[in-house]
Amino acid sequence: MNKETNERRQEKQRQQELKNNPVGTMSDSFQRASRGSLVDLVTSLGWKGMGIALLVMILALVVYAIIG
Questions:
Q1: Distance between CA atoms of 57 and 65, rounded to whole angstroms?
Q2: What is the DSSP string of 34-47?
Q3: Are 7 and 43 in contact (CB under 8 A)?
Q4: Which one-letter DSSP state was computed for residue 23?
Q5: Residues whose CB falls within 8 Å of the CB of residue 28, separated by 6 or more in sequence, listed in order
Q6: 27 vs 7: CA distance, rounded Å
Q7: Which domain holds residue 50?
Q8: If you average pLDDT over every residue of the chain, what do you get?
Q9: Is the pTM for the entire model greater than 0.85?
């Protein structure tokens, strides 16, 4: 049996959509380049990386509150 995780299935759908709609892909890439994409960030970091990023942001906020 070939069971796919929900993340893998969503990523396959996303890749298929990018293949089927090249003009939309170009528009999306311009928008992502200017604003960034949280989905891509979270997907690339994974749960451990995202946890570390959140921890760093919280610590930075605490340090800023104490110093500032």
A1: 12
A2: HH--HHHHHHHHHH
A3: yes
A4: H
A5: 18
A6: 24
A7: 37-68
A8: 78
A9: no
**Structurally, how many domains does the chain consist of?**
2
C-alpha of 14 from chain center: 13
Considering the domain architecture, whether residues 29 and 46 belong to the same structural domain is answered as: no
pLDDT tens, residue by residue, 9-33: 888 887 787 777 766 666 666 666 6
Are 29 and 50 in the same domain? no
Amino acid type, 27: S
Quote the distance between the C-alpha of residue 57 and its chain's center: 16
Displacement of CA 25 from its chain's centroid (Å):
16
Do residues 3 and 32 both lie within one domain?
yes
Which helix (H) or strand (E) is 4 found in, with range? Answer: none
